[in-house]
Task: structure prediction
Amino acid sequence: MKSKIALLISALATCLAANAAGDAITLYSHRHYQSDEQLFQRFAEKTGIEVKVVKASADELIERLKAEGENSPADILIAADAGRLQRAKAAGLLQSVDSDTLASRIPATYRDPDDTWFGFTLRSRIFAYASDRVDASELGSYEDLADDKWRGRLLIRSSANIYNQSLLASLIAHHGEADAQSWAAAVRKNMARPPQGSDRDQMRAVAAGLGDLAVVNTYYVGLLLRSDNPKDREVARSLSIHFPNQEDRGAHVNVSGAGMTRHSPNPEAAIKFLEFLASDEAQATFPQTTSEYPVVEDAPWSDLQLIWGEFKRDSLNLNTLGDLNTQAVQTFNKAGWE
Ligand SMILES: [Fe+2]
Result:
């Protein structure tokens, strides 16, 4: 009887501790995956901390944080690109997080040197191509897409898209602005149609024979393969993939990540949440649900990722992508890439 009462008291104490620990955190998130909600639910179950999510585009969330200032209810900003996180940092909207867990689990390349944001998932921007019209020996680097041999064959989305802006920022970092502009102009000339649609649409267009090669993020191939739509599964199955620049600096990579807001009302709970995203459980979940790569070493990959195998990654610090974002947008404009 005595031990039952003791148990009850300790359960009560745990409940009270959970409530006192921060009860709820608010996420401002640009991500739109149902699986994220399930993961946040797991965090709530484990910690007793309720998770509220406000969804909008990264730029809208950044503007909102600016407007709200110290009255913002947001504890965490989640974005799908290091460029956006860096923009939030530059605007003074994030704060440094001192966490041994995050520092030891997330490789330095995939977090801000000042620890204001942390990458939690990784992807590469790769080529998805029709193997009956493209010989694998034709494939090489991003730079090679400027070659005349690709005239009328390339599919890639608008320059308004952050994934393309970050890719061009990496080319500016490696080759300078003038070369990057010539590259963008040549790739624009080689497009099968004016840029339009999403990464998924580029792959659908290759499958439909509109062009031969699409530039897309790795996880979109996985998402098409797992689609409820049999036509999309067929599209993904019909394409082959190539990781660019394996002979030199490696393929362009980027992260989806999160940072603690400068005026987080619940900083302790916010840090627990960031640490949860770096946990074995969360890291093992992303490859299985969204087809993103984990950032933590030794976290298990999906079967698809294992089949694709290890690839060489560009080691450019991801902060650079944010720092060069404005320049990348201007360079696209000068090159005539809509
Ligand atoms: Fe995406």
In short: The chain has two domains: 2-122+255-301, 123-252+313-335. Confidence is low (pLDDT under 50) at residues 1-21. The pocket of fe (ii) ion is lined by residues 80, 217 (CB under 6 Å).
